Amino acid sequence: MGTIAAPTIGYALLLPFIVIFAAACVGILVEAIVPRDLRRAAQLLLAFVAVGVALVVTISNWSAGGDVVVGVASVAVDGPTSFIWTILLVFGAVSFGMFAERKVTAGVSAFAPMAAAVPGTVAEREAIEDRREHTEVLPLALFALSGMMLFPAANDLITMFVALEILSLPLYLLCGLARRRRLLSQEAAMKYFLLGALSSAFFLYGAALLYGYSGSFLLSGIDDAIRNGVAGTGPQGTGLLLAGMGLMAVGLLFKFGAVPFHSWTPDVYTGAPTPVTAFMAACTKIAAIGALMRVFYVALGSDRWDWQPLMAVVAIATMVVGSVLAITQTDVKRMLAYSSIAHAGFILTAFVGASQAATGAREGQLTSVSSVMFYLVAYGAATIGAFAIVTMVRDSTGEATQLSSWVGLGKRSPAVALVFSVFLLSFAGIPLTSGFIGKWSVFASAWSGGLHWLVVVAVVVSVVAAFFYIRVIVMMFFTDQPVEATGAGTAGAEVVRPGWTTLLAVGVGVAATVVFGIYPGPLLGLAQQASEFIR
Amino acid sequence: MMTTAPWLTVLALLPTVGAIVVLLGSSAAAKFVALATSLVTVVLAVVLTVSLRGGGGMQLVEDAMWIRPLGAHYALGLDGIGATLVLLASIVTPVVVLATWSDYDRTPDGGLSTVAAGETARYDSKIFYALVLAVQTCALYLFLATDVFLFYVFFEVVLVPMYFLIGGFGPGARRSYAAAKFLIFGLLGGFVMLASVIGLYVASADAGKASYLLSDLSGLTLGTGQERWLFLGFMFAFAIKAPLVPLHSWLPDAAEQSSPGGATMMVGIMDKIGTFGMIRFCLGLFPEASQWATPVVMVLAVISILYGAILAIGSKNLMRFVAYTSISHFGFIVLGIFVLTRQTLTGSTFYMLNHGLSTAALFLVAGYLVKRRGSANIDDFGGVQKVAPVAAGLLLFAGLSTLSLPGLSSFVSEFMVLAGTFGKHPAYGAVATLAIVLAALYILLMYQRTMTGPVRPAVADRVTDVTVRERVAIAPLVVLILLLGVYPKPVLSMIEQSTTLLQTSVGVSDPAPLVGGTR
């Protein structure tokens, strides 16, 4: 009594998050202080230094070992957190490289010169002539990245909600900043914002109900309540639990892009500037599945008999809808959007399997968390690489995202077409690419979790998914351009040589895809160190 | 000296090295590099096969941990069954290279070669030979792998170069469609097999130690239901590849739309993965489930035998014709495998070699003629033997080998399969024997329609006899078919040692005391 113990924060372990968040704040000051000519360079420097420092700290903390809950029990820094932070930072940095690209677009960035100007007005034209530029995109992206880092590490539902908002709000803005096709871009941002706000409300409502059930926001507190039962709760309490669980699931699955909460994905992926799409597709998915697994394994794991059947249905629906609708797409970005939905479904198979130590997974076996971690690396690398290629394939109107203009690309730019094919083969899960090992891992986890039938469904859907990836390869290599129809105006897209930062994104994507496809042992070993959430 | 170096890796990677050199070099040098590499591969394959000691077990074994968390090893080994197929893959490849020698050279003005009226190849000889060598590497790895995961990896990967080989060099407008169909069937089989491969991993992990080594897995005790499901996954993939009716429909399309060289690599070598896989994995890993499935598989095999033969009779396209005869022959091979006597297993393995040789001869000689005539339609030929007697003779020889004429190697294997089948399942044997009559019918009818009769004007204009280079390319096949027909003993005894071992591990004995029943 009388003395108030100072809370232990564990700054050292939280440092990576703090560095990124602080860098984002400093980035805003840079906008205010640094002269316009230097801003872009300053922002880039700041972003890369911050990510580099955060990465070094994350890795050194990780190698020092020890799973702990820090920040007054609000953040769990454990194996999965460290793994997720590492890949988020790497993929984030690679995406920032794409943000910095100016060469493909003849010296301007992919972002609108003045987002506040109404499209087609004098103000916009002046901004273009002035060669203005929104250098704020990097601080915004850093804020989003910091939210993404906090989201899967959060150990209580309030922190998780705050992280959800930190990661979402900057993304809504970034989506609306495309230089070309601005109305589409703004529509995408609006749609994403409205639906995202709705899903946040679901999440919050779910959190409230779970609090009502268990009397705790802590994940472990909810787990205790489920295990031990809560005094005085009868059927009513179970109702609270189930409703809370369902509403939480809606909020999390929305961010993850799972069916039936996927409808924003194609529009947003198409409308957003391509570097932002790459960032979202890779990093948001990583953060969302991390949070989803943490909530459902740590807090609701004891009640998994209630959520597994439903999640299995969601997984199947996600795989099927993503794969089947991807077949009919005529736009590369839209196709990649549906493909990301399909991959969300494949990842969910491992999630539903819930093959963890707590459910009887053996020592040395890949757990669901480890296999998802590996899958995220494979998927993220191929996704960022593929979108980087999309930024390079252009015609007179900008990025040539119509699949029809990719016809015959294999003839005109064999190297680029070949690299894109590597990414597509990885998405399709052909061996010797990391995508195959990822598929193997998640399906193996689902099988270990006793869901043989789900694996069978998943492999059949994989054939459908492979079909539409192969279709693009066919277009690039085997379909001849109809010579008569090719007037000057409808000429196929050409590959514009980008700056080194975009090439870096492609290079990292290819290297990761091939190396982790042929020799995945070390990475799988790392993923195995990130096999269990701390409780 | 032979025991220390990783000879099998060297053998399997030789074509890869060749492919890389081909890709880096000029288009003009491609065929020379490809020929040189494939000849070195043949020499090494023969030396390694000859160096095998008796006993029939895996030899020249290599084993290194590859992906520890998955229990996957980089493990290779050579036994009598594998060696037979390694020989096939090594021998057929240089033949293909030589037979297609100048087919895909660029024209003097730098254009791509014409593959059919109004159609050019999509790429030049550089890509063609790189793909051929890539297919060969995959095939060698498949026949050498003693680790399920390694096998699976190449089982899927081989689809990629094969797909480009069909879609990039086939004659005719439907090549993209045929290539896509080939790929979809292949992927369907591959992914279904993936489920079984994963199931095996979980089973072995549950048993204590996750490992994909064949030697570890064959000692695994599986529940009856589990074993049957896993077996079905593997069998489904192999039945697509081998192709067994009703999963065969991709093959005629793919063969018709392929270049002769591509079709040879596909039907001659790659499809053997299916029947080889049945022996190595279905029998080796799931002996009880294999016996459980025997009745159904044998019925399908017999249907394939007859159905393929009947469709071959009615076939209007030379390449399609060869594909249907192959479906019939694959039926024989599968029948022999699942009859499960030493005689039929040995016969089936030998059959794979012989079928590869005679199909290669048939596809390539037909390819010579198709290229000259500019059409593969049987009706567009007629009277060829008057204008191109040597070509007609070669086609007849290849045809006689296909119908298993006594004295040629395929007779030996077909006889072994049929005799063994009669010994254990007389009814199946009786029905399958009908195919001998049908085979004579389809080959001779085809020969009559294309080679004899009045010389058609278009044939007289365009068809010239085969060149020396083309004869030299086919010569090794002719020699081998004759040689193995007269003196098959060395190969047969090599195979038999391994099939004897296999039989022991499956737990069946020869049927002498079992005639007329399965008890």
Describe the structure.
The complex is a heterodimer of chains A (535) and B (519). With 535 residues, chain A is mainly alpha-helical. Chain A has one domain (11-529). Chain A has 20 helices and five strands. Chain A has a three-stranded antiparallel sheet. In chain A, a hairpin with a 2-residue loop joins strand 3 and strand 4. Mean pLDDT of chain A is 90; it is low at 483-489. Chain B has one domain. Helix content of chain B is 72%, strand content 4%. Chain B contains 22 helices and four strands. Chain B has helices at 7-24, 27-50, 80-99, 125-144, 148-157, 159-169, 175-206, 214-217, 224-241, 250-256, 260-270, 272-285, 287-314, 318-339, 342-373, 384-387, 389-402, 409-424, 426-451, 457-462, 468-486, 489-506, and strands at 59-67, 72-78, 114-116, 119-120. The relative contact order of chain B is 0.10. The model of chain B is unreliable at 513-519 (pLDDT under 50). At the A-B interface, helix 17, helix 18 and helix 20 of A face strand 1, helix 5, helix 6 and helix 7 of B.
